[in-house]
Amino acid sequence: MISDRLFTIREEGDAVLILDQTLLPHQYATRHLNALADAAHAIRAMLVRGAPLIGVTAAYGVALALKDGAGNEALQHACDTLAATRPTAANLRWALARMQARLAPLPVAQRRDAAWAEARAIAAEDAAANRRIGEHGLALIGQIAHRPVNLMTHCNAGWLATAAWGTALAPVYAARDAGLPVHVFVSETRPRNQGLLTVWELHEAGIPHTLIADNAAGHLLRQGKVDLVIVGADRIAANGDTANKIGTYLKALAARDNGVPFYVAAPAATIDWQCPDGSGIPIEERGGDELRHVGGLDRQDVHATVAIAPDRTPVANPAFDVTPAALIAGIVTERGVCAPGELRRLFPELP
């Protein structure tokens, strides 16, 4: 599925090549990350998006940081810098903790090569985990008797948000490969419009889809046009409460009111076992200009940004909301599908 053109992140010599997602869906462009500052900027400015991909990028950011010196101070500075980029996604801190645990005990001379190897392993493991999520999620789609299956999602949780395959869209790709017809209702996901990334992704894959305004979701659910909702996650608390892109909670409420099952798909790295419930999940507050301005192409196909509200307009711009476990029918991980309150059953090795 991931060709030379369709990728999110890969090594290129002693640099890292990423797909600049801020330019999609109108322009396909790549960017080189050559240093720690480049990786931190890519995460903070959302050139890379999605909790799993943020984690992979952070791991490679550590490797980039150690090119010019791999002492304890350099390692700690790299981890601190990357940890400060975005607060909500659990995968970011998970990846940094794993890099630090792997590298800190090693002699300084061994750390540079070990950092690249560990970042490479994190990326490969993410791709493998997401493929298994797709296999488990396919069973949920297969339970629906009629065809095509109408699925709704929110934000972007496809391969663009991961090392490969995606989370919420992994079952959709598995269904396509199995010859099971699926149609996807895609929310625009304002103010960053990540739903447009999902539209681009599904178009590239030849999967039928329909873009909808965020506020149309409840109407479609009430009309019986949606069979199930699957979303990704940026952090899952130990009790199953889930933080995802702002607007997810509203979809969960509408799905519950209309008897439509609502699922969350995410790898184990997204679960924060140290966070008992959703009240402990930090919610990123982003800048007001994201809401006051909107970007796109003008009539000459030139990228342009226009103001939709005066700069003086007060803005609240929370990037995520928390969906209570009680509204979630199941969580799909690489270990299988379970009720939110039964997550630990899938991970018996935990203390």
Question: How many strand units?
Answer: 16
User: How are the strands of the biggest sheet laid out side by side?
Assistant: 6-5-4-7-10-15-16
Overall mean pLDDT stands at: 95
Which residues sit in consecutive blocks of at least 5 with pLDDT less than 50? Answer: none
| CATH homology group of the largest domain | Translation initiation factor eif-2b, domain 2
Q: Please report the number of helical segments.
A: 10
CATH architecture assignment of the largest domain? 3-Layer(aba) Sandwich
Descriptive notes:
By secondary structure, the chain is an alpha/beta fold. The chain has 2 domains: 9-127, Up-down Bundle (Four Helix Bundle (Hemerythrin (Met), subunit A)); 139-346, 3-Layer(aba) Sandwich (Rossmann fold). It is built from 10 helices and 16 strands. The strands form 4 sheets. Strands 6-5-4-7-10-15-16 form a 7-stranded mixed beta sheet. The chain has a 4-stranded mixed beta sheet with strand order 11-8-9-14, covered by helices on one side. Strand 4, helix 6 and strand 5 (182-187) form a beta-alpha-beta unit. Helix 1 (36-44) runs antiparallel to helix 2, helix 2 (51-65) runs antiparallel to helix 3 and helix 4 (90-103) runs antiparallel to helix 5 (108-142). The longest helix has 35 residues, at 108-142. The radius of gyration is 20 Å and the shape is globular. The two termini are 37 Å apart.
What's the short story on this structure?
This protein is an alpha/beta fold and 351 residues long.
